[in-house]
Design brief:
It is built from 18 helices and no strands. The protein has 448 residues and is mainly alpha-helical. The chain is globular, with a radius of gyration of 22 Å. α3 packs antiparallel against α11, α8 packs antiparallel against α16 and α10 packs across α17.
Length: 448
């Protein structure tokens, strides 16, 4: 006898009340806590445990490898690039956000866990040695594929499987940023360049999973409880601040166009090199080492380096030069085959530009200039205006987040028509565009 199919509250084709079993649970439990809520919590807890373990290992590696400075980075970083290339060559190309978005759209949310060993090893080496990419993308991929594995164990299909994968992705992203609501929205918002929440039925599972992951990660690492960056105090007392937020949004959008042009130029250069992936990553490591020698603040993904920008007095021209250098290192990191995400690096870049503007024009509030430029730049590149606002409000402890929202929306609306993550278009596009777009963070090396 074929067992009857079990329907979940996330199935689009089923309503909540017609299911007798679920109706019975609701009647007996006025708090609406069902087995599905417990499943989402367990999923988030496991993702938080992995994220905490990953972060602790990463911190230990950074503590050791960050001691190599000066001329030694010209040796350490090319060597790290060789190791990354060999990992990818022998264990397979792990891909990143671009591939994840494709899988969510076209494979029903099924993410391949077989790529995780290559992703974990390559990203740990990439980030710990000083690549300009952060751990958010590796965490999202690994936890998302774990969600797919769990969904298979629970015999879920269709929208239910996609929902669990998205909830696990949100849990992985939330662990790093310490913002459960922002992480949940980001996991859904990153999937499309125009529709903010396409798979809206996954929002509540993503929020519940993110909350569980946040608590576990914060307990293990003690991160995410306090603000990550201590910005100068800012209070919204003047309607003119909204006009300034819009102006900063325009500047951030322009910076986004510049970054995407640099990124695609680096991508074309690497694509024209008919060499194995381990040569490609080694060349990228050498280029990153040269930038790190002349601009030490371009090394690493900006988690701690942004505090240096906040606390030190740098000339405006240096900050603008540093911002362009950071754009170049982010581009070379990702297109050169190194692994990691670039949300925090983009925040660092926006902070440099915003502070340079505040220094150049007396009377401007540096906190407003920095955070609005950060928001607009990230929104223009990743097409995530809502989650960017929520994340920055949490990371900086700036409570009047309405100006941040204005800047994020300006960056979103003024972004190029073709996004950098070409898979956000959710349709087949010309090869030339796909090469420069979806390869962003999808990590498609030209040769292997």
């Amino acid at each position: 006898m074929v067992p009857p199919k079990k329907h979940s509250p996330t199935d689009r084709t089923q309503s909540w009340t017609p299911c007798p079993q679920l109706l019975g649970i609701v009647k007996r439990n006025p708090l609406m806590i069902s087995r599905w809520v417990l499943r989402w919590m367990v999923l988030g807890t496991v993702c938080g445990l992995f994220a905490g373990l990953y972060w602790n290992i990463l911190e230990w590696m950074i503590h050791i490898l960050s001691q190599f400075k000066g001329l030694t980075v010209l040796i350490v970083m090319p060597l790290a690039g060789l190791i990354i290339g060999l990992v990818i060559h022998f264990l397979g190309n792990p891909g990143e956000i671009g591939v994840i978005v494709d899988n969510i759209h076209f494979r029903g949310g099924r993410l391949d866990a077989r790529k995780n060993p290559a992703m974990i090893l390559a990203s740990l080496v990439s980030i710990s040695t000083g690549g300009s990419a952060g751990p958010e993308a590796p965490l999202v991929q690994v936890t998302g594929s774990f969600g797919t594995w769990v969904a298979d164990r629970w015999r879920l299909e269709g929208e239910d499987l996609r929902t669990i994968s998205l909830a696990a992705m949100a849990a992985g992203f939330t662990a790093l940023f310490g913002a459960p609501l922002g992480g949940a929205v980001f996991a859904l918002e990153i999937l499309h360049h125009q529709h903010v929440l396409e798979y809206y039925e996954a929002l509540m599972p993503a929020i519940v999973s993110s909350c569980a992951s946040y608590l576990v990660f914060a307990t293990i690492t003690h991160l995410g409880i306090a603000p990550t960056w201590h910005f100068p105090q800012y209070g919204l007392h003047n309607i003119d601040d909204f006009a300034l937020a819009i102006a900063y949004g325009i500047i951030g959008a322009v910076a986004g166009w510049i970054f995407m042009a640099i990124f695609r130029s680096c991508d074309r250069i690497f694509a024209q090199l008919p060499i194995p992936i381990y040569f490609r990553t080694t060349i990228a490591g050498l280029a990153l080492g040269i930038f790190a020698f002349f601009f030490p603040l371009t090394r690493y993904f900006g988690h701690e380096e942004l505090d240096v920008i906040l606390n030190e007095n740098f000339p405006a021209i240096f900050l603008l030069t540093l911002a362009f250098a950071k754009m170049a290192t982010i581009s070379m990191t990702v297109t050169g085959g190194w692994r990691g995400g670039f949300i925090i690096p983009l925040f660092f870049t926006g902070a440099c530009i915003g502070k340079a503007i505040a220094l150049s024009i007396p009377g401007l509030n540096p906190a407003l200039a920095m955070i609005c430029t950060m928001a607009a730049l990230n929104s223009a590149v990743t097409r995530t205006p809502v989650s960017t606002t929520l994340l920055l409000s949490k990371l900086t402890n700036i409570t009047p987040f309405t100006p941040i929202l204005f800047a994020s929306l300006i960056g979103f609306f003024l972004a190029p028509k073709v996004p950098l993550i070409a898979s956000q278009l959710k349709k087949q596009i010309p090869i030339g565009i796909e090469r420069t777009g979806s390869q962003m963070e999808s990590g498609k090396p030209s040769t292997d």
